[in-house]
Batch of 4 targets.
Target 1
Amino acid sequence: MKRAYNFNAGPAALPLEVLKKAQEEWLDFNGTGMNVMELSHRSKDYEAVHNKAIALLRKLLSISDDYEILFLQGGASTQFSMIPMNLLNKDKVGHYVLTGSWSEKALKEAKKVGQTAVLASGKENNYQTIPTLDKIELQDDAAYLHITSNNTIFGTQWKTFPEVSGAPLIADMSSDILCKPIDVNKFGLIYAGAQKNLGPSGVTVVIIRKDLIGQAPEAIPTMLDYKTHSGNNSLYNTPPTLAIYLLSLVLEHVDSLGGLSVMEKMNEEKANVLYDVIDGSNGFYKGHATPDSRSTMNVTFTLQSDEATAAFLAQAKELGFIGLAGHRSVGGCRASIYNAVPLEHVQKLAEFMKSFQSSY
Ligand SMILES: *Cc1c(COP(=O)(O)O)cnc(C)c1O
């Protein structure tokens, strides 16, 4: 068996150790004679998996008791609506920083619910740079400030988060949660679809400060109210049990490697391997992001012409590199190098980039 050089943007590579552990337990989880998928979500065996995932997230991200951790469905995209439906009441304004397609989508959903404002936008330079925002004092009418910590499509990432006063800071961390240590206390709410850095698709993690729960208007559908899920340990209805099980294995794996500061070092090393090739290519490869905003998770670049890009992608495919075409909205190339992508695979890609340049 040969593992693919998987640079998919999401769903994406999972740690081999996790897949093996799941395989070992596939037919008989913990002596139950059942797969985790076959367990009742009300059983002790499943509940232990569920609570272990919560406890490990709490440990890895040092999340205090002021926050609840929720496992929801509907992807990060459902959070685009759920956040304003819960937190944007009618005299308030939801503030957004636009740093790419996902923040635009989040804003679009908020506009359907209430008043919004764009505090800063990188659209003018095609989202090559994260706007510089250190201190933000929001007015009394602000409901929250929403940012996207890593821009999966454009390949940019916030290096430091702004100090926000006056309203909670909310972040979509779908594509970089667990890539490095962060101070959760800076945020009112953090959310992430699992399929980039946390596990398989199907579960969305929401980390929410307790005072933000229970603010929704009464007319909100039960399933879209954070209170429903927080009051029931995310077991109000059937959760995505298999996805949460795999999430628990990924979290165990990250913990066994030494936690998030170790992940940060590994991720920086991997990203530097590719950015060094781009920077040393005499313009053959051109990075999309400006150096100060470069993502350690999604490395985006173009070649000098569409023909060169097409030739690069075709040859890469032949050699077994998967997922290198840029998102359909921006074109070019993108290598997604999330936590689970091994350094060795990144080095193989770097070698290929260099040899393609010299032969093209
Ligand atoms: C992938 C992604 C999303 C969309 O996630 P879904 O789970 O497919 O809804 C949202 N935001 C960011 C930053 C993403 O990378």
Target 2
Amino acid sequence: MPLPPGQRAIEGFPRFGTHLHHPPPPIPADPVIEIGGAVSEAVTLSMADLGALPRRQVDADFHCVAGWSATDLRWEGTSFAALYRARIEPLLAPGTAISHVVFTGLDDYRSIVLLEDALAEDVLIADRLDGRPLDSDHGAPIRLVSPHQYGFVNTKHLCRIEFHTSAPPDPDRFSPLAAHPRARVWAEERHRYLPGRAVRPIYHSLVRPIRALSARGSRTRPR
Ligand SMILES: Nc1nc2c(c(=O)[nH]1)N[C@H]1C(S)=C(S)[C@@H](COP(=O)(O)O)O[C@H]1N2
Ligand SMILES: [Mo]
């Protein structure tokens, strides 16, 4: 597979993220996804609820906005679209038009995604990577996987999904590295205001330090 513009293939699949050196959150004994926002009733989905939906496999590369790509990953889980049709649409009052979805992780990381992007056919709530349960480096127990969007959309350790009828406030909007709201890799939507090409060098300079900080050595491995 060719890589999207401005990406470089790397060996393996590093742990990477704004969590930096923080260890991954502990995996709850009974993981759930809380559903909230513009739904008529807040509900909690168990792993069994997810397991009742059709399973899907997605083979894809993974592209971080900083410029590295991990190639040939195999994800398994439930398609987000199937979850939305089966469990969310029945909770919407007539006339409620969802536009944005907020995905939150156990570490309080958040990504804001347009509903139309989340409904793309390659978007999964994934629980397996390369034939094994997700490990804590890559988002255990479950994560969002949206390979057509940059890595920062792909919230790890997913525990809450909120549905909105307009754009929710984005605290990152005025930061110098304000993320593009759609983050589609083939259009190189890296930055909210600047062309993707123009910010490549800035992002590339972040790969090495973030990678070094995010890797878990013997000192940070949970006991
Ligand atoms: N919960 C959580 N999810 C997260 C992040 C994070 O810091 N916390 N970082 C994001 C970023 S910037 C990237 S590139 C990918 C990295 O996924 P990986 O650690 O599985 O390589 O996770 C995304 N999801
Ligand atoms: Mo990233």
Target 3
Amino acid sequence: MANLLILFFVIMNGFKLGVYGLSMNYYLFSCPFVDSIVKNNLNTALQDDPTLAAGLVRMHFHDCFIEGCDGSVLIDSTKENTAEKDSPANLSLRGYKVIDDIKQELEKQCPGVVSCADILAMAARDAVFFAGGPIYNIPKGRKDGTRSKIEDTFNLPPPFFNASQLIRMFGQHGFSPKDMVALSGNNCV
Ligand SMILES: *[C@@H]1O[C@H](CO)[C@@H](O)[C@H](O)[C@H]1NC(C)=O
Ligand SMILES: *[C@@H]1O[C@H](CO)[C@@H](O)[C@H](O)[C@H]1NC(C)=O
């Protein structure tokens, strides 16, 4: 199970990111304590509500499955645009507040530096570890997207898909059926 988790996070974090521009030490000079700030804030929140761990992995997944891991799931709707967040597919997405709190803390320490997409990716990583999963390192440097449209969420796997349709859909994103089953565990919370 642990290996499986590592595998699909590696794949998931490769989602349309391109390898360019990303690095393990992306914030080394601009925000050296980013990892511990994320982790400490997250751990506090998870101590209050441990079930949020799965919620954050799920949110990261919803973010990545649509146009890559670009933080677009966090964008609020406006008068002119209904964002991904307000799709029926979001229905049970949870953990927005933790991400907002972490972002706020980071803005105090290193204003305008850390992308929300990276915060979500790091929070999901730390949530996996908190929940008893493996620890894994992720490259950082994701840029936040500005596109967040409700219609894009129709690319998420719908609940009425049968197994073969799901396997095909996840396969198109580089996931094996095993990855899919492991990932689906987070979708039940
Ligand atoms: C998710 O979508 C529903 C309806 O589609 C909306 O009412 C709700 O506010 C959204 N949730 C969040 C956290 O934005
Ligand atoms: C799954 O659904 C597709 C499309 O409706 C259908 O062609 C296929 O036979 C179904 N597979 C199974 C195993 O039910």
Target 4
Amino acid sequence: MDYKALVQKYDTPLYVYNFDIVAQNFMQIKNAFKARKSLIAYAVKANSNMSLLKHLANLGSGADCVSIGEVKRALLAGIPPYKIIFSGVGKRDDEIAEALEKDILFINVESEAELGRIEDIAKSMGKVARISIRVNPNIDPKTHPYISTGLSENKFGVEIDVAKKLYLQAKNSPYLQPVGIHFHIGSQLTELEPIKEASEKVADLVRALQKIDIDIKFFDVGGGLGIRYQDEKTIEPYDYAQAILSTLSGTNMTIVCEPGRFIVGNAGVFLTKVLYEKRTKSKRFIIVDGAMNDLLRPSLYNAYHEVVVVGKENERGSKADVVGPVCESGDFLAKERELPPTEHGDIVLVKSAGAYGFVMSSNYNTRPRPAEVALEGGKDRLIRERETFEYIIEKEIRFMV
Ligand SMILES: *Cc1c(COP(=O)(O)O)cnc(C)c1O
């Protein structure tokens, strides 16, 4: 890839996504589950760019959404309502009402109180809400605590015995139709055993529900499939699917899988330019024009992204921190990396930045958010304009007295 040409054309900081790799990743998961009917519902929160969603819609993807805004994005991008799921631990009344209005596939319920709200809202609208209950299987996914969600100390889902009670409640309500069961134990999962254990526990619950005439049609296994940022061992989609499918004997459900990171993480890069180098007594800093407001993962999770200086990949170097211009010591993209001497204008390539990159960006320090570019069939095209100063202040300026 000619990153220099891209930077000349679009400037930095810049996100670039390879849509061909996105398609490959999507098909890999789709094919892994081919022994059963499946719906791959891309987790929109990983990267919600409209052109990316349209690309996924064309591949047959559904969408897992965590706000009504994401539901509306998915619909606008051409994902049909019957492939859209609404998840999330805190849905507002108006979000629930709009989801019912749009007639999406189902709502993932995360608490008893939420089930009650959904019932009331469906009743007031004269509708029947299709629901799925998010079960917390209480299993340690062995990932970063901030992205682990399947332990009883996490805020997500309900415990298995509570779930059973909620299914009965739903079955007995004329305004609720239980159609699915859901679990999602965490993100960046790199071990198979916790997934299999969780799936087994939830499948047992499904079989118990069958016995009391509650027929679950969708087995929603969440997302979380990890990717390689550094040298992690990762799970093959085929093995992941097999681990889940092996727990489902005696059932006839459609698999719903909600991958986010796996689809886009390694399909995207972040490009930033070197402004200066600076040395203190103990450290070497490479100061670049991209910052934590553009790519938050290093600051938020101490996440590792591989970085290289474009055109100097093979040069010897010394340890340096790659830092942005934001006024926070926590503003860094990489720490203690072996990097060659750089000059003003050199391009630093930050890899694996397609997921949880742009979507977590902000205007902190009145920095316009970066442009986004898609690569497809060897061609590049802009899919989000770089923000301008005027755009940032637009919602404030007219209130100034
Ligand atoms: C975040 C999330 C996903 C996607 O997670 P990835 O690690 O990006 O695959 C899927 N389902 C739910 C409910 C989520 O919260």
